[in-house]
Amino acid sequence: MCGIVGAYVASGDVVPGLVQGLSVLEYRGYDSAGIAAVIDGELRVRKRRGRLSNLEEALEDGGLSGGLAGIGHTRWATHGVPSDVNSHPHQGASGRVAVVHNGIIENYALLKRELLEGGESFLSETDTEVLARLIDQTWAEEGTDQAALMRAMRRALGRVSGYYAIAVLATTDDGTCLLAMRQGPPLVVGTTEDGGFLSSDVLGLVPHTRQVVYLEDGDLAQLEPGRLTVTDAAGDVVERPSREVEWDPSDSGRGGYPHYMLKEIHEQPDVIERTCIDRIDLASGDVRFEGGAFDDAFCNSIERIQILGCGTALHAGQIARYLIEGLAGLPVEFDFASEFRYRSPRVAPGTVALAITQSGETADTLGATRLARELGARVASICNVAGSSQVRESEATILTHAGPEIGVASTKAFTAQLTAAVLLAVRIARSRGTMSEDEGRALLTELSELRPKVESLLTQESVARTRDAARTHAGARGFLFLGRGVNFPVALEGALKLKEIAYVHAEGYAAGEMKHGPIALIDPGMAVLVVNAEGPVAEKTRSNIEQVKARGGVTVSVGSDGASHAIADSYVPVPRTSEWLSPILNTIPLQLISYHIAEIHGCDIDKPRNLAKSVTVE
Ligand code: M6R
């Protein structure tokens, strides 16, 4: 939700690197983009509504070329419509301070009123301009040098309530100053001899350095070439640990695919294998996580699991519930992280709050797990980003090895989460003795041999079959996705994908619930996709296909249940596997069908309207 970058280089021109950083972070928001740079001691700004390409055009005048220090922003609008004037960076009245911001200043209206009463005037409708003017005004009271600016930042931000990751660029009496401060949203910094760099996520840093430092809440960092100084909330200079990033800069490219989403769908054979293969111990029919996470002592102390997440990640959590209850016999609840805090959750002794999150920075998920901890739960997570806030706040983590996911619609991160959930369920079940060595070995063997089945769903022929299904149904008035048991959340995820990238109304429903309401929607204009795998619930789900057909509905059967294919109007076959693993396979054709429908409708697949990849505000 908004991406910020900043750099102070030893030589050359800072702007191309900032633009490149913004291009990598554009998935975090794409309502506008802007850059401020110091040129010959003067702070200059270019900013444009819309995509980064608009900013690049504006930069062609060369007015920002040749500077050594700069900050940049790609916006997901919260306060004020997307427009040039509401774009970041924002400046204070002195013209010597520019600010980019990711987050929300909750008391901005109050602060703005005070500033207006004090004679300030505003250009934009944003909360960020309030911040810029407040910092600038406070700086004037403190002095004119860098030390005064840092004192001013602390004072000004001490008056702010809300969440922010900000970068501040200033021309001070003692030079150019690049500062960053964090309270909530993520901020990563790194330095080399050639420069000091900051970014909302590691993807913006890997072109410069793989050694990164995650700032903590309350940290204020000053960046210069080869030098990073961090002071904590108490104002003391602190050393934050530096971590090596495994992601490669090339991971953030499209790799020849027309869209990140398609590339990421095709990465799933690797991702699923990477997430499970080194953790599977076939000899013991068990799972070993790095660092002994989820060992017997931990697993045997769990009385109950509370799963928390949002969107796609919560769908993975819903599937994890079936797996853990079914295999390990533990009570599991799940909740929207965004709702958990707004009911009165009862956290029983022995509860583990399991956060599932790709980014590890989703504000609602972080907030919900913090509350769960306050209420006595231990916190664990399934997460894709090592070093993220969620990982740092978890006692035990299963890292999914999906690599950077750039497409706003989550695909490979979801199947990696499902893979991790299978591993976790087996680990708990083996530890608690609800699964024998042979049973563990059988399921883990099937998982370790899943790769060819995943690949078979991504051959030209299989992809063409999903494209045909998309062509046949792209004109449908609406879509109903049905599934039962462990494949019910797959139906929810199928519907979410379609809504998200193709802007088509779709509902995911538990197949058995259809006759309690949604069946009234069935007519020839409604496409009904039924996810069905062989297993105990297959026959019941088949009946739902019959019921839809009897009412003139159009059915597409997706899964391994051949008998469903025989009765549906059309079908997309999926290889047979254990019912517990079937969600991993069944998801893939649904991702492709949504992708192709979005393509047919001419949608912006990687940057769907109104969305942002990481929702770092509530
Ligand atoms: O980073 P997270 O996994 O915590 O993100 C949670 C959701 O915002 C995310 O899954 C969202 O629903 C996706 N855009 C769906 O494709």
Descriptive report:
This protein has 618 residues and is of the alpha/beta class. It has three domains: 3-249, Glutamine Phosphoribosylpyrophosphate, subunit 1, domain 1 (4-Layer Sandwich), CATH 3.60.20; 253-449, Rossmann fold, CATH 3.40.50; 453-605, Glucose-6-phosphate isomerase like protein, domain 1 (Rossmann fold, 3-Layer(aba) Sandwich). Strand 16 (280-281) and strand 17 (286-287) form a beta hairpin. It has 20 helices and 27 strands. Helix 13 runs antiparallel to helix 14. The longest helix has 21 residues, at 412-432. The chain starts with a strand and ends in an 18-residue tail after the last helix. The strands form five sheets. Strands 3-2-4-1-10-9-11-15 form an eight-stranded antiparallel beta sheet, covered by helices on one side. The structure holds 5-amino-5-deoxy-1-O-phosphono-D-mannitol. Residues 310-313, 357-359, 362, 365, 408-410, 500, 614-615 line the site of 5-amino-5-deoxy-1-O-phosphono-D-mannitol.
Give the arrangement of secondary structure elements.
Elements: E1 3-9, H1 14-25, E2 32-39, E3 42-49, H2 52-59, E4 69-75, E5 90-91, E6 97-105, H3 108-117, H4 127-142, H5 146-158, E7 162-172, E8 175-183, E9 188-192, E10 195-199, E11 211-214, E12 220-224, E13 227-231, E14 237-238, E15 242-244, H6 260-266, H7 268-276, E16 280-281, E17 286-287, H8 296-300, E18 304-309, H9 311-328, E19 332-336, H10 337-340, E20 351-357, H11 363-374, E21 378-383, H12 389-392, E22 396-399, H13 412-432, H14 437-448, H15 451-456, H16 460-473, E23 478-483, H17 488-502, E24 506-510, E25 526-532, H18 538-550, E26 554-559, H19 562-567, E27 570-573, H20 582-600
Parallel strand pairs: 18-19, 18-20, 20-21, 21-22, 23-24, 23-25, 25-26, 26-27
Antiparallel strand pairs: 1-4, 1-10, 2-3, 2-4, 5-6, 6-7, 7-8, 8-12, 9-10, 9-11, 11-15, 12-13, 13-14, 16-17
The structure holds 5-amino-5-deoxy-1-O-phosphono-D-mannitol.
The site of 5-amino-5-deoxy-1-O-phosphono-D-mannitol has 15 residues, from helix 9.
